[in-house]
């Protein structure tokens, strides 16, 4: 820690660094977790508990500029589980700690730093041969186990460096295989029922509301009509008007379900409570299991032909593969038709919404979604550069960079359901302490209870990404440390592209749609997924395609026949087995072979929406910048004043391309008649390109004054910039969710965020690594984006080429459950710059203190602690809000280092915060929130050489991460409505490391 303290003191700006010696003292599996121990830093964690992205001082990871050896880097990974990973954040779980010498956080901006991080800059410095004075060979090997997984994983690294007086070469490799078995609970949000009303039943005529009859009013489930019914929004499930056969719970088939029925079967409840109380949309148990592999390698060479000339080249390769099985057992509420009885609630007054705490639900159905997915991420990066001290007062630095990163996710899914009409019920209980209890009357671990019932589906989906960056930068410094002028410039060309392939409909038709002899894409009709095995004659209700051979299928010949589903409904249970998570699982190799999966996968056409939910398209940014800074250190009042004052000019050219889909006008004849089924043309897809050009001036000034031998005062001011989220700029519409309730529209005209920053700080250095510091900061951000949300009839999407006929059968079922294409409502979202200014104020505290001055009197030395805390507050007079900003975070480490023994116990804590905007799932007041998260880690090493005098003996390391088994949890609108909850588990690591 002494190196970190010395680097902090010597810096002019607000900077924190971690060096290799300290990185290895914690059980950190990647670089994100190492950064988490720095004041003002928070990280995003995956469901496995592993850190992924880094955020600085209250702004999201999108506002943090990450560089590798000073150059732009972009990893094509999607990031954490269920994340799209399309913003400007970098997935730091891709980088192991072993191969890096120094990690630096620049919290205050200087004009010679690459722009792009309104919150700050993070630089990863990979190892080089001249970092050490001698040649060496270092190794590290560990066995790992993460509960509740029984299998043992492994991590290891080997780094070798040779150096002479003028030339050095370093090569290193780091590899790991970890086994994951994460259990949790997910919901995909919460919703309430869409109770029928008299006006809704009466309908309209030519847009004019019909007057409800007495019978229609009697049949309504909420007779107060539209004045108070469905007042909180949502309404994503429908209570049927009549009790269906086999509903269960003692209900009689054919009984009218109106307001009287609901009140009689839910004693003590009011219609307001029944109408507005929330249930999980898809309350589901989750299991994510399988191996996660990572291999990284570096190769670095340095040449110093003279004391004034130095050249280097840094190469890095990374490979990461997740070969996981992800499956869920979901209670179908969203787009379902459950019937509530004996409901209880957490509030008597549900005017603004409330939460269901208990009840029995008839007509229940479950959905088992089995998703084997393979993710592969690769990165290659090379950074050559050189430094030339032309004279005592003139120094030149030049650097180039090239990086290429790819990502591929193959993500099929198999979704079988339990049948309706068999009397299945759900007993539901939510005591607010965490995961609600969803108890099915059917055994969900019995394959016989599943088949191709309503809501079943299969999918084939692939996503590919390609990120490329290349650039050059250089600077010339004239003068001496007392006063110098530094001028420079940079050129960066960064591109990101997302493409996807999807053959789900053709695959589903063959697997469970009776296997038609032809496939004609929407807007032609598709067979239902029922597992029918009726080869030959076209069954009733299945497409006959009377127009086949004309229009879009001209030249094709019939007749259209059916071959029978590849997996008939009667055989579906044979592809299931009882699962390790307490519910059935799919025998995927057997299922894939029986359904000719490889053929359908290899012939998947390109599509607009991707398996991660990201929109397809690309963005290229060409950035030219120049800067000038005046730097120096001058005596002022007998103490030293250090300063850096400068300005950076940045010119950005954005080229944004995306897919736009519109209905083919040939589907309607000149007389207004629609083409017959089987001949309709698919939507016309065009690639639309837009171009944005803007220039910005970014001034910055930083001063550090040594007020005494032990104290430093710092002040900094700057203007910084973050370019908008690339995915939010892609043109076109994304409407791929099975629930068919939300469309997102890109906005290519988004402008960059601009932040005006002020930093004040005081540091007192107590000796060795000891330091006490206090920093205050303010960021005033303009151009912040917010999600504009409007609720419109589904029919409004036709202007974007989205009609009922273009939906897949699952989406059509969802639309039908909400009243059909003429009635169903959808949310349309788009990112927009808001005029309001967002102000973030914060305080940082740090105290690093060896305790020898206290304990040496009793003959004990080597103890100490490192503690830091950050308080953040944000204010806005309008809609501008930064999500995921923890109001309070802290890190505390207690350590002992002496006589070859190192022991550390550390804790990191993050207070809960709002993670999303409002209007979630169509409920205007609903947002997502994260709860407090605190972890405790133990790390230790025992130097066998020093302890036992064994020359060359290794160090024994014993580490335990998250030894209290902390829970990751988020909630929906109300704290007792769990949105997600995961148990990452404890991780145990035992190994040996040493150096020759």
Please characterize this protein's 3D structure:
The protein is mostly beta strands and 996 residues long. Helices cover 9% and strands 48% of the residues. It has 14 helices and 50 strands. The strands form seven sheets. The chain has a 22-stranded antiparallel barrel. Strands 11, 14, 17, 18, 22 and 23 form a six-stranded mixed beta sheet that branches. The two termini are 23 Å apart.
Estimated radius of gyration? 31 Å
Low-pLDDT windows of residues = none
Helix content: under 10%
Number of DSSP-assigned strands: 50
Number of helices: 14
Strand content: over 45%
User: Major β-sheet, in short?
Assistant: 22 strands, antiparallel, barrel
Q: Which shape, going by the Cα principal axes?
A: globular
Class computed from helices, strands and strand pairing: mainly beta
Distance between the termini: 23 Å
Please, what is the average pLDDT? 91
Brief sketch in words of this structure:
The protein is mainly β and 996 residues long.
List the helices and strands and how they pair.
Layout: H1 2-10, E1 15-19, H2 20-23, H3 31-35, E2 41-45, E3 51-56, E4 64-68, E5 71-72, E6 100-106, E7 120-126, E8 136-146, E9 153-163, E10 167-186, E11 190-191, H4 198-202, E12 204-205, E13 208-209, H5 214-219, H6 259-264, H7 271-276, E14 277-280, E15 282-306, E16 309-332, E17 339-345, E18 354-362, E19 366-391, E20 394-410, E21 413-417, E22 426-429, E23 437-440, E24 457-459, E25 461-480, E26 483-502, H8 504-512, E27 576-577, E28 585-586, H9 588-594, H10 597-602, E29 606-607, E30 617-636, E31 639-662, E32 684-706, E33 711-722, H11 726-729, E34 733-734, E35 742-745, E36 753-767, E37 770-782, E38 785-793, H12 809-817, E39 825-833, E40 838-850, H13 852-855, E41 863-876, E42 888-898, E43 901-910, E44 913-914, E45 928-930, E46 933-943, H14 944-948, E47 955-961, E48 968-972, E49 978-983, E50 987-995
